[in-house]
Amino acid sequence: MLALIGGTGMGDLPGFMLERKRVVCTRHGEATILEGHLNGTPLIFLPRHGEGHTLPPHRINYRANMLALHQYGVTRIIATAAVGSLNHAMKPGDFVLISDFIDFTRERPLTIFDRPGEVVHTDFTQAYCPEIRHALERTAEPLEAPVHFGGTYLCADGPRYETPAEIRMFAHWGADVVGMTGVPEVVFAHELRICYATVAIITNWAAGISPSRLSHDEVVAIMANRRPLLLQWLSRAFQAIPQATCSSCVA
Ligand code: HPA
Questions:
Q1: Share of the chain above pLDDT 70, in %
Q2: Are strands 16-26 and 95-97 parallel, antiparallel or unpaired?
Q3: Ligand 1 neighbour 131 (Cβ under 6 A)
Q4: Cβ(87) to ligand 1 under 6 A?
C-alpha cells in the first residue's frame, strides 16, 4: 500500500478521490488517514498539518501518524516538504530529492519504541529509500522545473524561522535546505521498516540569504505555484513504485 504525506500547501490534494476517512488508534495516540485514489492509483493520503492546516510543526503527532500508516498496511511513503534554501545552486521553485538529513530538533520524541525494556538502534547510512528515489528520478524527466537529485535536509523545531547566524552554521555543517517537519518522520518510517522518500519544494531563500523577511504567505504562494507540477510528477512516480517494501529498507 502506498501513501503520500502532504506538507504545507499539499493539505488538500486536487485530483484525490476520497473514498474513506479513518481514525486509527495507536499506542501513541490517534491519527486520521484518508483512503482513496490519485489519478487511478490507490493511495493513502495523510495531510501532515491536519485537514485545514491547523497543526504547526511542533504539534504534529509524528509517532501516531507513522504508526497509523504502518498499522494500515502502508509499505511505501512519499512525503512532501516546503523548505528554505541555503545552497546558491538550489533556488526557490526548484525541487530537491532529499538524500540525507541533519537533526537539529530538540523538543520531539526520539523513537517509537520507548517502553521500559525496549532498546532499538536503527541504521541511518541510507536515510531515504533508494527504490522510491529511483522511481522519482526516472519519472522526473518531463517536469518543467529544475530537480536536484540529492540534497541534505536540516530539520529545525520551528515554528519560528531561523536566524541568519543559524543559517550560516547549518550551511557550514553541509545542509542544503532547511525545514521543520522532516524529522522525526523519517526516523519513525525507518524504525517501522517503511520505505520513505522526501520531495522538497524550495519556497524561499533561507534567512539572511533572502533579500527580504520570511513569511508563511510567500511559502504558501510558491507551493500553490508548484503544486500542479508536483502532483503530475508524484502520480507518475506512484505508478512506478513497487508496492512491497524494498530489501534495503526492510533489513
Ligand atoms: N525555514 C524553515 N522551514 C521552512 C522554510 C525556512 O526557510 N521555508 C519553508 N519551510
A1: 100
A2: unpaired
A3: no
A4: no
